[in-house]
Each structure stands twice: as structure tokens, then as C-alpha cells.
Amino acid sequence: MTTERSLKRRTKLSLILFAGVLTASGIGLAHANQITQWFSTQYELVTGENPHPVTLIRPKQAPLSAMALLGKQIFFDKTLSGSGQLSCASCHSPQHAYGPPNHDSVMLGGPGLRLQGARAVPSLMYLERQPNFSIGPDNAEQENVNLNQLARDGQSAPRAQKNARNDASANNVVPQGGLFWDGRVNTLQAQASGPLYNPVEMDGGTPAIVAQKLAQAPYAKVFTQLFGPAIFRDPKQAVAEALFAVARYQIEDPSFHPYSSKFDAWLEGKTTLSRREMRGYLLFNDPQKGNCAACHRDQPTRDHLPPLFTDHQYEALGVPRNPAIKANSNPAYHDLGLCGPFRDDLTKQTQYCGMFLTPTLRNVATRHVFFHNGVYHTLDEVLDFYDFRDTEPGKIYPRGANGAVEKFNDLPAADRANVDTADAPFDRHAGEKPALTADERADLIAFLKTLTDGWQPD
Q: Cytochrome c domain: from which residue to which, for each copy (predicted)?
């Protein structure tokens, strides 16, 4: 008769060997079949503990600098907007993981807060380690290489299939990094300028208008102390310094990168996962089931930095068109991500049309808006998309006038071949069983909830 003690010993053994999740180095694909066989039994779910804990290295906490404190005031300053009612924090709410505070697909802005933004608001959390935009792994030797040349080279380069059990795809010559859904800027300072001047967002107007408001703000004295008494004579420089201060706030304030989820505690051996959470975690890492870790990497780095749950790469997933976005009422309008309309340096690289940045899954359970166009509002809907996009597309996409399902209907017909149909779970076909059952989707959501920051032991 098998004892509970022996079950625990085998649980520890299987988890230690689990696909590199518990160690920075990982294990090879040679063991994948053996691991899958182990995970088909129940003994690995008995304890839910991490038998090989790691010490995670988090950003050092210190009092905010004067620059960051100024940036915090600017971050919450609504007067900088054209309406006087919208600040950075209005769309990037601290109470909502610095993401949108509501269920709207896109936020409203402009002079009367009646104009729709173009895309769903991403979270500002965990951007301190975001790499610069590149095609292929970020390489200092390629800083002066033309992006279009790299893109052309990438078309003939071999591409490793994305698999939750290995990181070979990290070396693929594909777009990665950068900020916004299309990676069009590389610094938090540049990112902050986008919404500030966008007429459908903060609608700040010109640098002269924004600088005048900065000069009249309660923090104007601190501003001149930091940047000199003549700073407001140069409006562009004044605004640039203000946005630099906002960037410093995001870098220094630990609320933007606390790494305080239950999963972080589990990695460090400070808690156990429930059976449902553990089942969800195994599905997350199973290349034949969720395969989530193929894009949302869950291992600590070799130098013990916590996982970011993204590989920073771009994917064309083919999410359905969102009728809630008024611009979509024009059948000629398409948001093509890397191909435009908000960046124009890759428009000729049509192989990238429809690709958007893979976001972090940290705090994903706190969100109510998913994907670049905000078409889904619950994790259940998101997992239905992954499960049924290819197996039962009629559940995901509308039917056209001819009665046929309009698959990938948010992309022009010419760009639909860019959609990923090779990597699991998108390698299935109509009529086949979906990757996950309803119970498995519930298990996976239970695991995703362990990625929410602010966890406290019972």
C-alpha cells in the first residue's frame, strides 16, 4: 500500500524535474515524454509545494528621489489634459494594476471625454525590464542596422516552434520588445508623451500649452529647483523633463513592480498551491494543452529575477473584430499592429501585419479588458477564444452574408495568412476536440489568479 509519505516524496521528485520551472536552468526536451507520463497520474498534486525554492531578487526599495516624487505628482495631474479631467492615472489606475479602471474596450478622452481611444489600455506594471524593440534577440551590434533589412533577413531564418517546455523560440528572428501594443517607442519617457498629445486621449495640445500648465502647477517650484529657473523658457525641454520625471516615478516606485503574488511566494517555497491551482499550472506548461508558457515565460532568470510572464515577442492571433470600437464601423479600417496605423517604419513588412505585443500575465485576473482591441472582458471569454478559435470558429466569429464564418475578420484577407496556426493550441482544426475541457479552463483560471500581486497568507 502506498503511503502519503511516499506520495509526497514522488511529488517532490516530479516537481523538481518539471520542465525547468523550478530552476533557472530548466531541463531538456529529451525528458518531455517522461514528464508528460508522470503528470498523467495524481501523485504530483498531493502537496502543491515547491520542493526546490529559489530566492527571487526584486528591485531594491528606497525612498523616492526628488525627481520621482515630482513625477508622481505629474502622473496624477488632471490639469495637463485638454479637458482638465484626465491624468495618466485615469487610464492607468493604481487600484487596477495600473490598467484601465472599467470594462470599456477602450477609454474615452479628448476635450469632452467623448472620443474613443484606438486600443485597449495596457498595464504600466513590470515595464522596468522591457527590452528595446528589435527584430530577433536584442543585440547591441544591430543598433544601427535598418529594421527593414532585419525583417527581410528574418523571413529566411529558421523559426523554432513555440513550446512551453523549451525556450528555443527566444532566438527566433521575429519582432520583440518596445512599448505600446506595436512597440513604436523604447522608453517610458517617450511612452508618456503619446497619450499626453493624442487628441483622443489626454489631448494636451502643444508643448507650449502643457509647459504653461506645468509652470502654474502646485509643484512648479520643485520643478524649477530640479531643472533651473529658466526651464519654462523652453517649452519642449520643460515637457521632456516632466515626462522624464514620470518615467523615474515608474522605475522607482515599487508599486509598479512588487513581485508580490502567490506564485512568487510559491517560487520561494513560502506557500503551497491548491490542487486546482496546481492542475492549472501544469496545464499552463503542458505543450499539448494550454501551452501558455510558450509565450508567457514563467521561469525565473538565471540570475534569479522573477519571471515576467511574457517573452516580449509579437503574435498575430486573429482575435475577432470588436464592434464596440466605432472606427470598426468602417470596413476599410484595420488596426494592423506593427504595420500601422500608429507606426510607419514597417508598413512594407506585410508579414508582420496583425502582430501585437505579448503582454505580461501578471495581475491578468484583475483586468476586464483583453487583447489589443478589448474585444473580451473575462478570462473565461479569453480561454474560449484559445479553445474554439480553430475547433469551433462559429463560436468566435460572425457569419457573413453568404452564411460562412468570417474567421480572422479583423484583418484584411491578404493578411490573414500571418495568423499563428502552427503553435499549440492553434494547431487544431475544425471539428477536433479543443485543447482544454471546461474543468481544465477553470483550473487554468485558478492558476492565473495566483499571479495577482498583494497576496497575503491565510
A: 66-230, 275-452
Looking at residue 426, the DSSP 8-state letter turns out to be T
pLDDT score of 279: 94
| DSSP track, 276-290 | HHHHHHHHHT-TTTT
* Domain spans of the chain, in order of start: 1-52, 66-127+183-256, 259-458
Whether the per-residue pLDDT at 73 is higher than 50: the answer is yes
Judge whether 154 and 136 are in contact, CB under 8 Å. yes
Could you give the angle at which helices 235-252 and 207-216 cross, rounded to 10 degrees? 70
Please name which of 82, 63, 59, 38 lies closest in space to residue 202, comparing C-alpha atoms.
82
pLDDT in tens, 232-283: 999 999 999 999 999 999 999 999 999 999 999 999 999 999 999 999 999 9
- For the record, the C-alpha cell of 327 comes out as 472606427
CATH class given for the domain over 66-127+183-256: mainly alpha
Q: How far does Cα 220 stand from its chain's mean position?
A: 35
pLDDT confidence bin for 45, thresholds 50/70/90: low
Across the chain, mean pLDDT equals: 89
Extract the C-alpha cell encoding 87.
491624468
pLDDT tens digits, 158-182: 666 777 677 766 677 789 999 999 9
Q: Which CATH superfamily, name and number, covers 259-458? A: Cytochrome c-like domain (1.10.760.10)
Nearest to 325 by CA among 119, 99, 102: 119
Cβ–Cβ under 8 Å, residues 322 and 374 = yes
Instruction: Show the cell assigned to 75.
Output: 502622473
Spatial separation of the C-alpha atoms in residues 448 and 262, rounded to whole Å: 10
